[in-house]
């Protein structure tokens, strides 16, 4: 066979043609995009906090799932067997104690989580990196300060929201499942602080507010311990203030009756007397039902019924999220000023 017909044969070098040598270099490893690399860095740097949050959410979620299933079934079986429905007062023993512990733990974690998040965001997420110089090192590695802060807030926010939403949904599941038992025993009012916080949108809103407030505290103070303390104090102050004014966020309902007997159900805000002239006199400071007056025409009670749960939840959540957005804007504005307008 002719050599020219052989496709595997190497072509002959032409006489006098310079020989060329092809040098192959190993392909360079693909570098991850800056955003993805920064996300990995945040997760790696704060993996201890991530593990702690995941373990806490997992344990509480398991307890709430147990409470919504076999825990509640055991309590109700003991309640029916004991004949509590015919008694003025009775206890249902260890079954209810274990059930109550699991339910209380779920709402307590959601109540305390914002303070923990604010402390961590202020002390570890932001201030520690500014104090150690890690943040400035990142800004020299093709990562702008604005992108650095955006990632620092976005990644934890996604993790925190996932956990709080899961626990809130499980709290709601338990709340709906135990309605019959709650009615019989008269326990767990909807307006109790931890119950109100853990059964709606407010827990997630408070968690995001804590993240924003802690981040701003870290940028302002740039030292771990002061930022940690400021994060806890700021979150506590906001939560206490909102709790104090919560009953004013939605119009109350008023019940007027001829007798002072309780004819309302829900959260009592105020009660007192209505005189013959139409004046309302609160009986908060009175030792007698009539406050020593002879011109009493009726009795009134201002209260929030259970139907006000979602209006109060949504209004307060809107306030909290608006405040969180303002704090995030302030954090970016402060960072831009301190870095000379670098974006």
From TrEMBL:
> What does the record list as coiled-coil region(s)?
none
Q: Which UniProt keywords apply?
A: Membrane, Transmembrane, Transmembrane helix
Q: What is this protein called?
A: ABC transporter permease
Q: Where is the composition biased (Low complexity)?
A: 7-28
Residue numbers spanned by region Disordered:
1-33
Give TM segment ranges.
Answer: 50-69, 101-127, 148-170, 190-213, 225-245, 314-335
């Amino acid at each position: 066979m002719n050599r020219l017909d052989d496709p595997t044969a190497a072509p002959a070098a032409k006489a006098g043609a310079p020989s060329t040598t092809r040098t192959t270099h190993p392909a360079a490893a693909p570098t991850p995009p800056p955003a993805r690399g920064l996300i990995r860095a945040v997760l790696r740097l704060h993996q201890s906090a991530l593990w702690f949050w995941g373990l806490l959410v997992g344990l509480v979620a398991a307890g709430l799932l147990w409470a919504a299933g076999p825990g509640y079934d055991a309590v109700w079986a003991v309640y029916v067997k004991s004949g509590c429905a015919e008694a003025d007062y009775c206890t249902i023993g260890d079954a209810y104690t274990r059930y109550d512990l699991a339910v209380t733990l779920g709402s307590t974690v959601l109540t305390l989580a914002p303070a923990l998040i604010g402390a961590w965001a202020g002390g570890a997420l932001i201030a520690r990196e500014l104090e150690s110089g890690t943040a400035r090192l990142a800004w020299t590695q093709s990562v702008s300060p604005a992108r650095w802060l955006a990632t620092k807030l976005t990644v934890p926010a996604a993790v925190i929201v996932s956990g709080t939403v899961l626990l809130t949904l499980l709290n709601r599941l338990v709340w709906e499942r135990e309605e019959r038992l709650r009615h019989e025993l008269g326990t767990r009012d909807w307006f109790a602080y931890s119950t109100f916080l853990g059964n709606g949108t407010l827990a997630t809103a408070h968690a995001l507010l804590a993240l924003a407030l802690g981040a701003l505290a870290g940028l302002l103070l740039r030292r771990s311990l002061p930022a940690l303390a400021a994060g806890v104090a700021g979150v506590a102050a906001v939560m206490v203030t909102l709790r104090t004014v919560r009953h004013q966020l939605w119009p109350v309902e008023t019940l007027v009756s001829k007798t002072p007997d309780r004819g309302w159900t829900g959260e009592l805000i105020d009660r007192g007397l209505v005189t013959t002239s139409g004046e309302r006199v609160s009986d908060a400071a009175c030792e007698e039902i009539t406050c020593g007056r002879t011109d009493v025409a009726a009795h009134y009670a201002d209260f929030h019924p259970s139907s006000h749960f979602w209006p109060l939840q949504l209004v307060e959540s809107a306030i909290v999220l608006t405040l969180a957005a303002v704090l995030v804007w302030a954090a970016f504005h402060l960072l831009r000023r301190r870095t000379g307008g670098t974006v």
